[in-house]
Amino acid sequence: MTQTPRLSQKISAIAESATLKVDAKAKALQAQGRPVISYAAGEPDFPTPQHIVEAAIEAARDPKSHRYTPAAGLPDLREAIAEKTLRDSGVQVGANQVIVTNGGKQSVYEAFQVLLNPGDEVIVPTPFWTTYPEAITLADGVPVDVFADASQNYQVTVEQLEAARTERTKVLLFVSPSNPTGSVYSPEQTKAIGEWALEHGIWVITDEIYQNLTYDSVKAISIVEAVPELAGQTLLVNGVAKTYAMTGWRVGWTVGPADAIKALGNLQSHLSGNVNNIAQRAAIAALTGPQDEAEQMRQAFDRRRKLIVSELNKIDGFQTPTPQGAFYVYPDVTALLGRSWGGVTPTTTLELADLMLDQAEVAAVPGEAFGPSGYLRFSYALGDDSLLEGAQRLQRLFA
Ligand code: PMP
Question: By alpha-carbon position, which residue is closest to atom 4 of ligand 1?
């Protein structure tokens, strides 16, 4: 007798987010009073700038914001996003080419839903942010990993992309600055990759959520700025979460050709409707108000970036490229695997991360969450003192 599965097989196949899992474990240990230092979280530790909070308070008092907005977002916010897109991604779009989403995460999910047919392949530069393969699989697509290691500064080449291309290749994912590596593609590389996608009629989903967090005077040029002809086959994903320390507010957006945005609007009108009206008003304040606090946060991240790279590179076995964006560093720690500490011999970074938590009370996310084993992701979005203390604990552990 065949049994009907109790739950959806598609949903049952989703893995729990590994980054949230490590963070939850670290927080549970902290709750027991253990002095755990966690480099696991993917969010700024700063409060949201005060003028944004004030705009939200004002909005909450205004009965107008107690109602639905259009499913695609407040017209003023869509306009502000169009202006931001011109400013930072160098592409001119109308407000009808913008949809406001419940965070970049919803943008990513919806983008694959709207572009993919069953069996379509998506090229995913690896290491990748954990959510992408799940979002692709949920849209009945097939993720095709293309791996670039530390010696390539975690950046894929056109040759690698071409080797992965098949007749089923529908979408290229492009993420610069990258989570988990912090790597930023140069304008030349971005252009070369964009031209390759254009030549082969491949859609690009470009996740630009970290575009304002770059260092050393580097600019993360948008792939549509590098190759303007790509605009008709590119969806740009972005949001306020990382730049303005607004992870909890849940405002993101997608920008793209009008037909795709219309399709996204239809999907979203049945999925979630509009994003929280008050949060949308806060996002208008973020995008159109003073940018000095965002700049101060960026400078703090820059300082911490230099600190963590130099401290981690003091550890024999850590090979840590200096990232130029986001707030992550991604050392190659393969040299540590197979060695023993306190009677434990980790052979994978999953085991190494456990050992670090058990023996040094330091949490980092193992590479297995983002692709191959052999790497650890450290977020440096935490206070300078903790940042240094955690690195010193690892220096002592691995001495
Ligand atoms: N894209 C990337 C690369 C991210 O790292 C994140 C957050 N971890 C997101 C999108 C989603 O951000 P949010 O949903 O908080 O706007």
Answer: 179
pLDDT band at 20 (very low <50, low <70, confident <90, very high): confident
CB atoms closer than 10 angstroms to residue 162: 11
220 has pLDDT over 80: yes
Ligand 1 atom at minimum distance from 252 CA: 16
Tell me the domains of the chain and their CATH numbers: 9-47+293-397 (3.90.1150.10), 50-288 (3.40.640.10)
What is the distance between the alpha carbons of residues 31 and 153, in angstroms, rounded to a whole number?
Answer: 37
Query: Reduced to 3 states, what is the DSSP secondary structure of residue 300?
Result: helix
Q: State the pLDDT confidence band at 255, using cuts at 50, 70 and 90.
A: very high
Q: H/E element holding 138?
A: helix 131-138
Whole-number Å distance, alpha carbon 17 to ligand 1 midpoint, is 12
With a 6 Å cutoff on the Cβ, whether 243 touches ligand 1 is: no
Say if ligand 1 is within 6 A of residue 241 CB. yes
Residues 6+ apart with CB under 8 A from 392: 311
pLDDT over 90, % of the chain: 92
Using CB atoms within 10 Å of the CB of residue 15, give its burial: 0 to 12 exposed, 13 to 18 middle, 19+ buried: exposed
